[in-house]
Amino acid sequence: MFFKPLDLTTALRPSLLPDETLLFVQDAVGLYEGKYKIPNYQNGHAYLTSHRVCYVAVDEPRKHSVAIDLKEIDRVEYQAGFLKSSPKVTVYPKPLKNHLNKSRSTGASPSRAQHPGLQTTRSQSPLPQTSISQFKPTPPQPINATWICPICTFSNPVPSNFDPSTATASTSIPPCLACGIKPPLTTLLKAAITAAASRDGSSVSAALATLDTVRLPQSNGTKSATSAQLANSTPCPRCTFVNHPSLLECEICGAPLKSASPLGGPSQNEHRSESPAPLFEQGSIKNTEIKDSIKLSFRAGGEKTLYERLKGALVQRKWLLYDAPPVPQQPVQSTSSPSLSVAAPVNGITPAPPRSTAVGIAGLEQRGLEARKNAEFVIGNAFEDLEALMASAKQIVALAETLARESGIASEDRAAETSAVLTESAEALGMVTTKDMLGSGGGNLYLSELSRNLAEYLTDDRKGILQKEGGIMSLIDLWAIFNRSRNGVELVSPSDCQRAAELWEKLKLPVRLRRFKSGLLVVQRYDWSDEKTIRELQEWMEELRQNPPVEPVPWDWHLFGRAISAQEAAQRFKWSVGVAAEELEMAEDKGILCREEGIEGLRFWRNYITSNPESQSGGVNVSTLSII
Amino acid sequence: MANSFLTSSSQQPFQFPPTYSFPPFFTPQPNAATRLSQLQKWSSLIQSWCRHHRIYRFSLVETIDSPLFHNTTLRKRLSLSDARNIIDWMAKPEEDGGGKRAEWIDGANKTMTWIWWRRPEEWAGIVADWVENTGQKNVVLTVYELTQGETTMSQEWHGMDTDAMLRSLNVLVKRGKAQVFGSEGQEGVKFF
Predict the structure, then answer these.
(1) Does the keyword Cytoplasm apply (chain B) (predicted)?
(2) Environment class of A325 (CB within 10 Å of its CB; exposed 0-12, middle 13-18, buried 19+)
């Protein structure tokens, strides 16, 4: 499982894939990898969609936002809050052995072995990788060092950055994960030293054992591999119980067995050293692999709803409906050189490999061959297992959904069930933010999400709401259109709409709310300014001076042009009449226009009262006073 | 007196400024800067119009229908209250923009106004200069002679309203440069 980079919309929400729907949003969420907090990812919004779990930090959201695909999640666990520790939802990735089994079941074809999901785990070509890890000068610190909390006897892991040789009383010690009380330094020191002592002997033999188990399936095939695994059982480093090799945790005491597990070990050791850039240390976790588990820590509640909906989403498996993760282009030479497979695309996120440069008929033929290979791969992949088969049968999934809802898997009680139904119907109607969808964070989150939602709605190029309205529209119009698009369900109240619009500036969204002198509230693009409007008005006025009016006029139109009314301005700039009137008055206020009240109503002229019509630049001729 | 502009010697028609044919000129502008400019233009228009027609005072109610306030080609006119506001502004002292170019004759009623296209002080100076140049110091002149006499035919103030002339002469009296005597309608003046 990987932290994937996340595309954000203009309103700094995750941009959803086609068919993907937003299920839940919660603010004040922190991210943990394993037991440790990830820096820069401690205050943000968690977005649960039908396909992903997304995280967007409040500060620098473009930099610090990641997503995890639901399809890579094995299971989720809920952990209630305890004393100082916030409630958490733990997400476990699908174990790596799954991939191994899958690759075995596909048979001996070398092209099949290049399954994209397997390439991402980097465990596909274990032989060279294992040798790399063996020659590594400094083996990583053992993860299985634990200390027992003297208060609650919970066994905690010793932090990986804890070095017993340099630790002093001033070294920061993490509190107990269960009760939140800091242990005495000596407890930690003892645990670290014991672990270090026990590791020295075991590490080399473990690595050698790993090498054996990995080489065997490659050379001898499936049967000998399983037998080798059975023979190679793993003693627990803590309680010395001899575990089955495929177990990741000790059956008796629960201590992690990673160092000895056949695939977890090498891939883990190799990971940090072979990573193209030390991303994790820089605070960017995009594209890094999640080895153990990740946790979402809910500082402001909402964990239960998210947990329920996440479980529901995992049951529904909506991502199967989504055919879109485009079938990755198969690297042509990858079978021969294992080094290439490491850099292979991760579900189309990394750019496609460069096309081969063959030209002419040879090139066409080669491309045809590639296409055929690809098609073959897709077909082979589709029948690989039942999951893939389901992808082609939308009805089955739809059925599974209904069943899940009816049996109440997604929700424990009635209220939650009805809300789930509501959410679903809301999704069907194309709504995005509803009050029901948001956590207990309360009104503020609702408003900020609504605000983002409105901004997205306005700037959506497909709908082009703002463009149609000439780049400016009154808030009331927006409210009406927005509610109409919600088809009469989950309507937004006028006050919520206004308050959400007032948040735009704070959230740095690309639209802004503007109050005219008369109190009329309008919505504009962020970069729209009065100067721009004035420039357009002036251009128009200049145009009117060039083109003769339709009817003969008693004044010199070469000099003064013609009057414009709010209706005309509205028509020309596609504004609403109210907005046009306000804009004209704004220009008048700036001294660009002047008004004429007559039987035709209020009309506006270029201001030739202050400026001289002869001089284009509009020099003020106050000097006419001294005519005597 | 009321229709004095009709009887005056207007040999050629008055040339209105370009803004006179600008329709918004007849609508009071809400923008302060535009309004100030509008008032200044109206003030200068009224003054030059009065100067052309040798008008020193007029009744607002009657003049409102004159071409000054009524542009027949545009079919635009200034309303009575708008015209009154403009005269009010003109009556303000220099620092408020008006420069005392107008003065209500009947105070609060605001129906009759002086238009001082030359203020009394300015007239006083001109008359005094003329007296000096023509060597008429210490000579007694009647006010009628001054305004209507043949000797002043070439002068700017010829045909001047008697009251306006008396206002100007009073300035000189205050300065100690002249003395006005005689009963009403037969005033005489002596320059020092």
Answers:
(1) yes
(2) middle
Total number of domains in chain A: 3
Residue A565 pairs with which residues in a beta bridge?
Answer: A603
Segment 536-575 of chain A within 8 Å of chain B by CB: 554-556, 559-560, 563
My answer on whether A476 and A565 are in the same domain is no
Are residues A132 and A191 located together in one domain of the fold? yes
Q: What is the mean pLDDT of residues A315-333?
A: 55
Q: Is A622 on the interface with B (CB under 8 A)?
A: yes
Return the CATH fold of B120-191.
Answer: Arc Repressor Mutant, subunit A (1.10.10)
Most confident range, picked from A64-68, A388-392, A591-595, A623-627: A591-595
Contact at CB, A624 and B44, closer than 8 angstroms: yes
pLDDT of A49 above 70: yes
- Which pLDDT tens digit goes with each residue over B123-150? 888 888 888 888 888 888 888 888 887 8
Residue B133 φ/ψ region, left for φ over 0, alpha for ψ in the -120 to 50 degree band, beta for the rest: alpha
Span B4-115 CATH architecture: Orthogonal Bundle (1.10)
pTM given for the model: 0.50
Verify whether the Cβ–Cβ distance A556 to B18 is below 8 Å.
yes
Residue contact B22–A625, C-beta within 8 A: no
d(CA A572, CA A202): 81
- What pLDDT does B168 receive? 87
Interface of B with A (CB under 8 A): 17-19, 21-27, 29-31, 33-34, 37-38, 40-41, 43-44, 47-48, 51, 73-76, 117-118
pLDDT of residue B12: 77
- ipTM given for this complex: 0.79
Boundary-marking domain end, from A507, A525, A543: A525
A599 CB near a chain B CB, below 8 Å? no
Looking at the fold, whether A222 and A248 belong to one and the same domain comes out as: yes
Residue boundaries of the structural domains of chain B: 4-115, 120-191
Q: What is the pLDDT of residue A123?
A: 41
Selected residue of B14, B21, B22 to mutate for chain A interface (largest A Cβ count, 10 A): B22
Within the 364-423 window of chain A, which residues sit less than 8 Å (CB to CB) from chain B?
none
Q: How far is CA A28 from the centre of its chain?
A: 16
Q: How confident is the model at residue A438 (pLDDT cuts 50, 70, 90)?
A: low
Closest CA to A48 of A311, A233, A276, A260: A311
Whole-number pLDDT of residue A400:
57
Taking the mean position of all CA atoms in its chain, how far away is CA A574? 36
* pLDDT 10s digits, A511-526: 888 888 888 888 888 7
Residue A204's pLDDT is 44
Q: CB distance B21–A627 less than 8 Å?
A: no
Cα–Cα distance between B36 and B24 in angstroms, integer?
Answer: 14
Mean pLDDT of chain B: 83
**Contact check, Cβ <8 Å, B51/A628:** yes
**A617, part of any domain:** yes
Per CB-CB distance under 8 Å, the chain A contacts of B86 are: none
**pLDDT tier, A211 (very low <50, low <70, confident <90, very high otherwise):** very low
Indicate which of A534, A544, A594 best probes the interface with B, i.e. most B CBs within 10 Å of its own CB.
A594
Chain A residues with CB under 8 Å of B47 CB are 627-628
Q: By residue range, what is the domain housing residue A612?
A: 530-625
Residue A7 in domain = no
CB contact under 8 A, A610 and B34: yes
Return the bridge partners of A512, or none. A524
Spatial distance between the Cα atoms of A460 and A605, rounded to a whole number of angstroms: 36
Confirm whether A76 is domain-assigned.
no
Q: Which of B14, B15, B29 to mutate to test the interface with A (most CBs of A within 10 A)?
A: B29
Map residue A460 onto helix, strand or coil. coil
Contact predicate A501/A475, CB 8 Å: yes
Q: pLDDT at position A501, please? A: 87
Secondary element (H or E) of residue A76: strand A73-79
Specify if A45 maps to a domain: no
